[in-house]
Design brief:
Blueprint lengths: L2 H18 L3 E4 L17 E5 L2 E9 L5 H12 L4 E8 L16 H16 L3 H23 L8 H10 L5 H18 L11 H14 L1
Parallel strand pairs: 3-4
Antiparallel strand pairs: 1-2, 2-3
Length: 214
């Protein structure tokens, strides 16, 4: 299934969830379906009910545009009885670690962290966690490439644990990253997380420090 197919499927699932809660739902609303404050945007879903209204954006990590999402969030925040929700789409089953592909470039990692920070400040915790973990994986694997190349293409859990055993990840950061990984895995694979995410704002500062040291 392509990222576009997964995004389309997730949109249909979210629309069904809101319909099940009694909302009137419009997928890919056109200009005539949008209130004036959303005229400059094309959100994926709008859901309306007597209890309030929701604007939903569904994006894959590859297609995520932090600036666009920020503008939409700010527009929604100006309205009472409206809220904004970001849903990030990831593959439903963790793929094997690619054997040949290059690690994400520094520019891409910076973008992932910046967008995760923005989402965390908007309390879009699930989407922020998914982007934050993508950045963490790139940083950990880059560090492993120079210090433990034998595990660079191993599972993310093994890479994290190995770098911790070598002293490249501090104990408190290791615990927070492990918590983030568990939370991210539950969300990415369609489960309800049994534990909450760590404090993402604090952890993203740790991640930036790890990036600088990698």
């Amino acid at each position: 299934m392509t990222p576009k197919d997964m995004t389309r499927q997730r949109i249909e699932e979210i629309a069904a969830e809101y319909r099940g809660k009694g909302y009137g739902v419009t997928i890919a609303p056109d200009a005539s379906d949008l209130p004036a404050f959303l005229a400059a945007f094309r959100p994926d879903i709008i859901a309306k009910s007597d209890l309030g209204n929701v604007v939903v954006e569904v994006r894959s990590a590859r297609d995520f545009d932090g600036d666009e999402v920020q503008r939409l969030a700010e527009a929604v925040e100006t309205q009472s009885r409206w809220k904004f929700e970001v849903v990030l789409v990831t593959p439903p089953v963790a793929p094997d670690v690619p054997a040949q592909e290059e690690l994400a470039a520094e520019e891409q990692v910076n973008r992932l962290i910046t967008n995760a920070e923005m989402l965390a400040k908007q309390n879009q915790t699930e989407a922020a966690a998914l982007l934050a973990w993508s950045a963490v994986e790139a940083i950990l694997r880059r560090s492993a490439r120079s210090t433990a190349p034998e595990v660079e293409r191993s599972s993310s859990a093994r890479v994290l644990k190995h770098l911790y055993s070598l002293g490249h990840v501090q104990p408190d950061v290791y615990e927070r990253l492990s918590q983030l990984m568990r939370f991210r895995n539950a969300v990415a694979h369609g489960f309800e997380p049994s534990n909450g995410a760590p404090s993402l704002i604090e952890l993203l500062s740790d991640i930036r420090r790890m990036q600088a040291a990698a």
